[in-house]
Amino acid sequence: MRTRVKICGITRVEDALTAVAHGCDAIGLVFYGPSPRNVDIQRAAAIVAALPPFVSSVGLFVDAMPDEINTVLAEVQLDLLQFHGEESPDACRLYGLPYMKAVRVRDDTNLLQYATQYQDARALLLDAFLPGVAGGTGHVFDWSLIPQQLPVPVVLAGGLTPDNVAGAIRQVRPYAVDVSGGVEESKGIKSAAKIAAFMQGVQNAAL
């Protein structure tokens, strides 16, 4: 089965359309004020409205209050929620939408326990741990820490680039990969050339 691709931190319609043109399966919108890739509701709605069929829109939240998330959902048609903070399973289930839970992986992280705790998550998104940073670190973590048999799909994130994504896929065999900074010209501004190279790296992993 081919590896799916999510390109996160989209802030412009043109970047979303470029990602889609190169074959990505999902785009990620960051609703987290401290992030340089944060988007407001109006811009997010415009990006989602421009997407063609069969491309998923994913909304990323970090310990957001329910009112904040519901305000976004009232205006932006999201297909999947991505929780990057300390949200409990019950908190993730409040919105009647499928979700995935991000886990920042450390040497002592018990991913099997997370998979049990968030058993109804559509996936666990595995990212690098950096103190005080919720995600988008640009750092790679030790992929050997991922158990070979997790009972939920794995979305691999953290420091992926056109240069290392093929090796990452061959080692981890994730359901999907998630990239943001690795395909950017600057924070929040994507590079068409880097997106194309990243997608080629994903294809090369199957060769």
From TrEMBL:
It catalyses: N-(5-phospho-beta-D-ribosyl)anthranilate = 1-(2-carboxyphenylamino)-1-deoxy-D-ribulose 5-phosphate. Belongs to the TrpF family. Gene3D superfamilies: Aldolase class I (3.20.20.70). Its EC number is 5.3.1.24. Residues 5-200 form the N-(5'phosphoribosyl) anthranilate isomerase (PRAI) domain. The gene is trpF. NCBIfam families: PRK01222.1-4 (NF002298), PRK01222.1-6 (NF002299). It is an enzyme of class 5 (isomerase). Pathway: Amino-acid biosynthesis; L-tryptophan biosynthesis; L-tryptophan from chorismate: step 3/5. Keywords: Amino-acid biosynthesis, Aromatic amino acid biosynthesis, Isomerase, Tryptophan biosynthesis. One of its GO terms (molecular function) is phosphoribosylanthranilate isomerase activity. Signal peptide: none annotated. This is N-(5'-phosphoribosyl)anthranilate isomerase. CDD domains: PRAI.
